[in-house]
Design brief:
The protein contains 25 helices and 8 strands. With about 425 residues, it is an alpha/beta fold. A 4-stranded parallel β-sheet has the order 2-1-3-4. A 4-stranded parallel β-sheet has the order 6-5-7-8, sandwiched between helices.
């Protein structure tokens, strides 16, 4: 694709990066076939190829409008198109650059700015988010349906404590996250119990909460970088002292973001090297368990196993497309004795996509319902996933329980039928 970027951006780092990405696109259209929003809307401008043209026009100095903003806002950033693209176009980076320019050129309404402000200030702060969720749960019956769907039903029934302090030589650190401790507190606890059985001590570090992904994708980049620096500051003493083997991510959305810390903070002289090291030590929990497969198999063989509960697994976009971890969770669940039911179009997004279900509720609801239809077609008794956003979004439309897959491994190791 030929480009002629405008003077305002062509000699900047972002402009040079965008130019390289644009030139790598051969506009073949393969990406369109796997784009969730194009499948729903059938509009070329609501597919990756159309959005690439919109960004190209904007970076070449052509006029932009609320229409441009609408089509870029509708993108889920699911990166399914990148998995499909034969040319390796880094669409997500082009989208980030384009959205940043667009934010400066097309002002948002007061209501939209207020919503984004609340999301960027409330969600990453547990001391705000937790009481807000409790209040929403209390008044859930009185809320409008569109708001009530966003308030999770109080968790209960399957929470168990973290393992008692152990003396394992191997030590790993879990990211607590911002919303997960409130919405699904059993996720990290279950991970700690599983790793404890494998001879690994898992703990959390106070001060390491939000990874920065939420604010980063809401175009509050500087605040996001502050969140990232806070995580690095909390973890770095353990890295320096050699006390940590890996940083374990139980939310694939957080894992995807922490893995690009080195890239995002590359121009920060005080944090660039630290960020790159943190990223190198980051592992999704499925990767950790896959690395301990021999010992895990021994434990599963000696546990009390049920007769093959039927399970449907939804692979989050941040796991399969961004981190390119595919088939690992499914293999672990199968080894644990669960029957994985087939799921049609597993590459498609469920519609959660960070705060997308709030900013684009109609499209997010349609994508959720389509995903649930695919997940339940094989008559599973439980749905599982690997990201808190997907879990709560799917649960809002499902009568079946939606859980993190690590909980099922934990229950099987502990002989829970």
């Amino acid at each position: 694709m030929q480009t002629h970027l405008a003077d305002f951006i062509k000699d900047t780092a972002a402009g040079r990066e965008a130019d390289g990405i644009l030139r790598s696109c051969v506009h073949c259209g393969f990406c369109t076939a796997t784009c969730p929003t194009f499948q729903l809307l059938g509009d070329e401008l609501d597919g990756p190829r159309g959005r690439i043209y919109l960004i190209k026009q904007m970076l070449e100095g052509q006029a932009v409008s609320e229409k441009t903003q609408l089509h870029l806002d509708r993108c889920l950033s699911c990166r399914s198109c990148e998995t499909t693209c034969p040319s390796g176009v880094r669409y997500h980076r082009l989208l980030e650059i384009g959205r940043e320019v667009l934010e400066e050129r097309v002002p948002r309404s007061l209501a939209a700015r207020a919503t984004r402000f609340l999301l960027t200030e409330a969600l990453p702060r547990p001391w705000i988010f937790k009481p807000a969720v409790a209040l929403g749960q209390l008044f859930r019956p009185l809320l409008p349906r569109v708001l009530a769907d966003k308030v999770p039903v109080p968790a209960g029934g399957n929470e168990q404590p973290w393992p008692r302090a152990s003396t394992h030589v191997r030590k790993m650190i879990a990211l607590a996250g911002c919303v997960q401790p409130t919405l699904t507190p059993n996720t990290n606890a279950a991970t700690a119990r599983v790793l404890d059985r494998l001879g690994i001590t898992l703990s959390e570090v106070p001060g390491a909460a939000c990874c920065g992904a939420l604010r980063y994708h809401l175009h509050a980049q500087e605040k996001a970088r502050d969140d990232m620096r806070q995580v690095i500051d909390a973890w770095w003493p353990l890295v320096e002292s050699g006390q940590v083997e890996a940083f374990v991510m139980t939310a694939s959305g957080c894992g995807e973001h922490v893995r690009v810390y080195g890239e995002v903070l590359a121009d920060d002289p005080a944090y660039a090297a630290k960020a790159a090291r943190i990223a190198d030590l980051t592992r999704d929990v499925s990767e950790v368990l896959a690395g301990e497969r021999e010992r895990l198999n021994e434990l599963l063989a000696s546990s009390s196993q049920a007769g093959g509960e039927r399970v449907a697994f939804h692979s989050p976009c941040t796991l399969q497309h961004a981190q390119k971890i595919r088939g690992v969770v499914e293999a672990l669940l199968a080894t644990a004795g669960y029957q994985l039911v087939p799921v049609a179009d597993p590459h498609l997004c469920c519609g959660s996509a960070g705060t997308y279900s709030i900013s684009q509720p109609v499209l997010a609801g349609q994508l959720r319902d389509g995903k649930l239809a695919a997940l339940t077609a094989g008559s599973p008794s439980v749905l599982v996933t690997a990201n808190i956003g997907c879990q709560t979004h799917l649960q809002s439309g499902s009568s079946l329980p939606v859980r993190h897959w690590i909980e099922l491994i934990d229950e099987r190791l502990n002989g829970v039928d």
